């Protein structure tokens, strides 16, 4: 690393490991996904570790595979605002980030909900703006498939534009609160918005919240999604977590900022990552192998294969070779899951070639191809790797996805955070009170922000 480049602070966030196949619900150490105690445990652990924020994903409809509900979805997913507002009362500094869809919600309602969370938490709210990708989810709202992909991002952009106008709509001196004169507030100006999606005339119901604008996150990877993120978001939640893919994505996103008049540091890149620790590298590898087999059980392996093949493969042995039949081209076998593979035949061909070359069974192949960024090693090794990714611009930090609920982060906070602190890459105390402070972001209503360099000690 060049000596002229200042050391970057590592940003860390905690993903509540809800509905996905990273979560090992079958492990005896796994507890409820719904009890408030589970949320409190993970949030308090993240705060003890001085993390930037706690993160909730969102799924609006139980996914179906071959007409059946996914086992993973049955673990449940309580309402995001209810959970985050409750957590605001039992944490003090931790940011509280909620994934909320812009396709099926109204901007006035969203602006009110996030401003409320920002008020109640003293400036710790974040909104991960997602658009959702399928008509199946839309059926929940009797609007199945009514928006094309690009229109979803137009609606998302207009939703954020309206929300920002509402958050900005109370002038700074609106609240008078003069008991003697009997004047509470000056007149609140009306916000007018006439756009392609919304035609709104509103007086907003709340004064500016502590952050002015709650932090905006974005997750979505198409060109439209990346443009929306570059124009709008304070941070991106991404799957590009490996060193090479991370660096390419990082450079691409930062390169898009200038045309929106934004500076390099105004957008943080935060890939998802899992981790497995051990007292020795060999022990960590062994644990990681065991966990991957828990995450991809025999039925899960077949289900993943069926998603690509588009047909029932239940007659195949998960420990045997890949099917010799061709994919059917039916991509609707699984409904409600974000689809990243566009061409099933090409994927099937590539998987077959890999399985043959490396002599892999169905389950072994699925374990390999569904692996996401994973840090495996001793606490010192994991800290070193995370730091390397951040210092070499593959990321600004990570949203950690533990495989166990709710205790999966405990070991990381107890053993890896001190290593990162020792390297001088991670804070030893919170320097500010708001999530914008933690992320080193500007406060839109001119509140002074804490600078990057001042935060890592
Ligand atoms: C890393 C990542 C995480 C996502 N998390 C969610 C989520 O929790 N809930 C959701 O409804 N959509 C989620 N999405 C879906 C996106 O918001 C978006 O609707 C979808 O990826 C289609 O847009 P795209 O083509 O731009 O990727 C996620 C996407 C990515 C890439």
UniProtKB/TrEMBL annotation:
Query: Sorted alphabetically, which keywords does the UniProt record give?
Result: Flavoprotein, FMN, Monooxygenase, Oxidoreductase
The organism sits in which domain of life? Answer: Bacteria
> Can you name the source organism?
Nocardia bhagyanarayanae
Flavoprotein found in the keyword field: yes
> Which InterPro entries does the record match to this protein?
Diverse_substr_monoxygenases (IPR051260), Luciferase-like_dom (IPR011251), Luciferase-like_sf (IPR036661), NTA_MOA (IPR016215)
Please give the Gene Ontology molecular function terms for this protein. Answer: monooxygenase activity; oxidoreductase activity, acting on paired donors, with incorporation or reduction of molecular oxygen
> Where does the chain bind FMN?
99, 149, 153, 222
Q: Which family does it belong to?
A: Belongs to the NtaA/SnaA/DszA monooxygenase family.
Q: Which NCBIfam families match?
A: FMN_nitrolo
Give the protein's recorded name: FMN-dependent oxidoreductase (Nitrilotriacetate monooxygenase family)
One short Pfam name that applies is: Bac_luciferase
Every copy of the Luciferase-like domain together lies at 30-392
